User: Fold this.
Amino acid sequence: VHLVESGGDLVQPGGSLRLSCAPSGFSASSNTMRWYRQAPGKEREFVAGISSIGITSYANSVKGRFTISRDNAKNVVYLQMNSLKSEDTAVYYCYAPSFNSWGQGTQVTVSS
Assistant:
């Protein structure tokens, strides 16, 4: 079981990014998948989740700005991030709770 995130970058406030999480060894469509983030000096926090039946959930801080989705054919989970703020700066991690498996993380920096 392995998770690989990609898509992190430096972006200006108000900009958008799309993160990808590609699992190997299992099907994302059959499992709950989550995104977490960890900012410098802070604890890792939940960002968004999608259940095996497509129910989504979000942290209040990102609700209305971020969207989690899944492409079952490609076996990829996405996190679309819009209206980015400086406080969204963090390392973003993909997590599969059924396997207690974390990705290596991808850095998102929001700065002008």
